[in-house]
């Protein structure tokens, strides 16, 4: 009797939720929020409110004309017009209720439904806009278009920028380099904070001889930076292929460019230096081609 029990437990373990593929990808909603501007979300909310009001108003107007059903009435006894109907539904969906126009008959059910929809829309809109306002921008951490291999130090260097107006707290910087299809995982460093200045990050040493001997197509350099920004978690990562890693003699060009430490994002010269690529410089793929070793 022991074997069937073990088999059943094994089957249950194999079919547990930890092994089930998701029906749909997660995070799509937050990605949509990130990709949509704050004011566009506000506009979408207003359009939704107006759409619901016009739909319910159309139902009430059609009911009045076709069925002769008076679903709303004015307190002064006068006939209800189109503008009165729209005004009443705006008051209802916003749950204000002035009392000058009130529902009647089937209109009571419509008003209850409309008020519930209005409360739900308001709660959803406030939550969504709060998330958008507090969620860090997708480009809080910006990486340079190129990584660099410095021949003097024989190390890779990555340039990135904290583009927010506040410093990042409790940071972590991780790097992974795949050389000869084998990953080299460098220990993460944890600076206490990162200012809004341009940052440079050196990765563990890899000799010229080692790269020349092992570098193949498909190798890459990955870097991840994370931290806290006013109570919110922010993280960004980048991957550089060998044709996106420039080979330089040293990193002296950084020290010679003062705006790196007081960046003006709108300055074309700053952008050019941030994505620094001098003419005629070789990439890692050019300097250490795999075809030379085959």
Short description:
The chain has helices at about 1-15, 30-35, 40-65, 80-95, 105-135, 210-215, 250-255, 270-275, 285; strands at about 70-75, 100-105, 140-145, 145-150, 155-160, 170-180, 180-190, 195, 200, 220-230, 230-240, 245-250. It has about 290 residues and is an alpha+beta fold. α3 (about 40-65) packs across α4 (about 80-95) and α3 runs antiparallel to α5.
Q: Which spans have pLDDT < 50 for at least 5 consecutive residues?
A: none
Residue share in β-strands = 15-25%
Overall pLDDT level: 84
- Spatial gap, N to C terminus: 61 Å
**Oligomer category:** single chain
Structural class, from helix and strand content?
alpha+beta
General shape: elongated
Number of domains: 2
What is the number of beta strands?
12
Structure description:
The chain is 38% helix and 24% strand. It has 294 residues and is α+β, with helices and mostly antiparallel strands. Strands 3, 4, 5, 9 and 12 form a 5-stranded mixed beta sheet that branches. Strands 6, 7, 8, 10 and 11 form a 5-stranded antiparallel beta sheet that branches. The chain has a two-stranded antiparallel sheet with strand order 1-2.
């Amino acid at each position: 009797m022991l074997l069937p029990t073990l088999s059943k437990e094994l089957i249950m373990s194999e079919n547990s939720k930890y092994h089930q593929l998701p029906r749909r990808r997660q995070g799509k909603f937050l990605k949509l929020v990130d990709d949509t501007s704050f004011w566009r979300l506000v506009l979408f909310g207003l359009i939704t409110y107006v759409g619901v009001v016009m739909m319910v108003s159309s139902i009430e107007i059609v009911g009045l004309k076709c069925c002769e059903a008076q679903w709303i009435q004015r307190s002064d006894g006068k006939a209800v017009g189109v503008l009165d109907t729209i005004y009443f539904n705006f008051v209802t969906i916003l749950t204000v209720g002035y009392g000058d126009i009130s529902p009647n008959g089937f209109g009571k059910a419509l008003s209850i439904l409309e008020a519930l929809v209005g409360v739900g829309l308001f709660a959803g809109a406030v939550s969504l806009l709060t998330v958008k306002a507090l969620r860090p921008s997708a480009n809080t951490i910006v990486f340079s278009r190129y990584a660099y291999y410095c021949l003097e130090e024989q190390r890779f260097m990555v340039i990135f920028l904290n583009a927010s107006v506040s410093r990042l707290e409790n940071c972590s910087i991780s790097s992974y380099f795949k050389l000869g299809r084998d990953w080299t995982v460098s220990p993460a460093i944890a600076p206490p904070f990162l200012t809004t200045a341009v940052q440079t990050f050196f990765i563990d040493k890899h000799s010229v001889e080692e790269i020349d001997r092992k570098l193949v197509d498909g190798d890459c350099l990955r870097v991840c930076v994370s931290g806290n920004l006013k109570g919110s978690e922010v993280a960004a990562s980048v991957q550089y292929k060998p044709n996106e890693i420039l080979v330089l003699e040293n990193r002296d060009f950084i020290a010679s460019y003062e705006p790196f430490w007081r960046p003006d994002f709108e300055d074309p010269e700053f952008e050019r230096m941030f994505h620094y690529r001098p003419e005629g410089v070789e990439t890692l793929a050019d300097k250490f081609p795999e075809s030379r070793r085959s």
